[in-house]
Design goal:
By secondary structure, the protein is of the alpha+beta class. It has 14 helices and 23 strands. It has three domains: 248 residues, no CATH class; 90 residues; 157 residues, Porin (Beta Barrel). The two termini are 25 Å apart.
Length: 539
């Protein structure tokens, strides 16, 4: 076991080091993107009709300007089976044939049935996107707010199209989960971008109708607009599994959770198809990553909030731009990692900047001392942390645990749900028994210092083994309650060494028929404190 632990340790350290060696680039500007979101309506598939009825209730992110113009469904002219070989290209052709690019431009410039257009939406979005710094700079110029309105022109080419395909929808029973209600499905997100380059933009401006144009010229411009070719280019695809479920048991921990109907869980599933797809895309698409300056450090604050789609525990890397005498340029050096504070500390800034925008709170989880003016860049993570190592005590042996960060779901910072498992051997009346245990619970991270976190936890689990009784092997088990805390020290922002102690308390030893064989401790003496030393890697 010691050898296996050392192998795992070396692999994790190597992974962490390699990840740090990747050269980082950090754009210094961030412009607001816009989205046109469709759900593709392939009619085949179990439960799609139920899911489809929930699409119109999906709440879109405030982070992106909404470019939807007429409904949320893309009705394909092809079948799902015929598109399987190259779904990305098949959907692109459907978008192109439906003139989606041209319709997006028509929305941007408020095109009317008679072909006339205006700049109202472009200007409004320019003002809305402008930061306090942009606003204050504009006030010192002769053009004033008109300079802010011009920002809208550079946003048009940041028009994206997201097509979501929900498939393989199953009830939890159909998916093989007993005692659970709700739904499971696959969600595939296909992201595209319109190419509104200078050549196309100039061709578009040639279709602009003016009041003094003759009727003949107006008609020529109307026809020219209808012939505009707006390219649609694929950007990225994301495929993920989504679940919205609850235990059917209304006892125990189930009493702490508000019961939802299967209809409510379907609505939750469809909402997740959008939320989780967006979250995953933001990991890879640079234009979707928020960039801003760190405004203050005691406490950590920045002038972003709900307008930028900020949620609890969203991760940001913080950079200092350092002059490199060899290249003659300033290069970004990562100085720390911070996360957004709890929901109550995130400001609602969904309004035009006036120079006095409020700030959202952040807390630091790695790195050195930060300074105001450093650059923050959004870096979404999966919110998963894997811990492995040996335990020592009455309960001993190899231990593994996976923590999942709940902050962006429940709005409370540094809150985790975890599952754990362990294997070891225990002696009883001169014989050795292999023990398997697994469980789960909740944990709360307390940041003691920038690179040190204490994480108390409380959970329930089950330990089992096989006992030979009168020549017959009987599988027996016992529930356990476990409380404790782990201390983690950063070696890097995603790799820590950990140590901790947990108190196990076992109950009765029972078989699958409910027969009792005394207490677990009377046979194996397992209750008590166990000490853990190990490593943890975050993803």
């Amino acid at each position: 076991m010691k050898r296996s632990f050392l192998i795992i340790l070396s692999l994790l350290i190597t992974t962490s080091i390699l990840a740090q060696d990747i050269k980082e680039t950090v754009p210094t500007t961030y412009d607001r993107s816009s989205l046109t979101t469709f759900y593709i309506d392939f009619p085949a598939g179990s439960h799609w009709k139920v899911a489809k009825s929930k699409v119109d209730s999906v709440m879109f992110s405030d982070k992106y300007d909404n470019n939807n113009y007429d409904g949320r469904f893309l009705a394909p002219s092809i079948t799902y089976e015929s598109a399987i070989g190259n779904m990305t290209e098949a959907i692109r052709k459907e978008l192109y044939n439906a003139n989606v690019g041209r319709k997006i431009i028509a929305k941007w410039y408020n095109r009317q049935p008679d072909g006339t257009m205006d700049m109202e939406l472009v200007h409004q979005r320019g003002r809305f996107t402008a930061t306090d710094a942009d606003f204050l700079k504009a006030q010192t110029s002769k053009r004033g707010n008109a300079a802010l309105e011009d920002y809208g022109n550079r946003l048009v080419n940041l028009s994206y199209i997201l097509v979501i395909h929900i498939s393989d929808i199953k009830t939890m029973g159909e998916a093989g989960f007993k005692g659970m209600k709700g739904w499971q499905a696959k969600a595939n997100g296909y992201l595209y971008r319109i190419n509104f380059n200078d050549e196309i933009r100039n061709a578009f401006y040639d279709t602009w109708i003016y009041d003094d144009d003759s009727e003949e010229v107006k008609e020529q411009k109307r026809r020219a607009f209808e012939q505009l070719d707006i390219p649609i280019e694929p950007v990225i695809n994301k495929s993920l599994s989504i679940t919205a479920s609850q235990s059917e048991n209304d006892k125990g921990l189930g009493l702490l959770v508000k019961s939802k109907s299967t209809d409510q869980l379907m609505q939750e599933l469809v909402q997740k198809s959008y939320d989780e797809t967006i979250y995953r895309i933001e990991m890879d698409v640079e234009e979707f990553k928020v960039k801003t300056s760190l405004y203050a450090t005691r406490p950590l604050r920045a002038k972003i909030g709900l307008k930028e789609g900020l949620k609890t525990d969203y991760r940001f890397f913080v950079y200092e731009h350092v002059y490199n005498s060899k290249t003659g340029q300033a290069e970004p050096k990562r100085r720390g990692v911070i996360r957004a504070h709890s929901k109550s500390k995130i400001v609602d800034n969904r309004k035009e900047a006036t120079g006095d925008t409020q700030t959202s709170r952040f807390y630091q989880v790695a790195g050195r001392k930060l300074e105001p003016g450093f650059t923050m860049q959004q870096q979404n993570d999966h919110g998963i942390e894997v811990s492995v190592g040996p335990e020592v005590g009455n309960v001993a042996g190899f231990y593994a645990r996976v923590d999942y960060r709940l902050g962006r779901i429940i709005g409370v910072r540094s809150t985790f749900a975890y599952v754990e498992g362990g294997v070891d051997a225990a002696d009883s009346f001169g014989e050795s028994y292999g023990m398997l245990r697994y469980g789960g619970g909740l944990a709360k991270g307390l940041q003691l210092m920038r690179n040190i976190e204490l994480r108390p936890y409380l959970g329930l689990g089950l330990e089992q083994t096989t006992l030979n009784i009168s020549g017959t092997d009987v599988e027996i088990s016992s529930l356990y309650v476990r409380a404790g805390a782990n201390l983690a020290l950063n070696l890097s922002h995603r790799f820590q060494v950990i140590g901790g102690a947990g108190l196990y308390q076992f109950g009765d030893a029972t078989d699958e028929d409910g027969n009792t064989y005394g207490t677990w401790d009377s046979r194996f003496n397992r209750s008590g404190t166990a000490v853990l030393v190990g490593i943890k890697l975050g993803f």
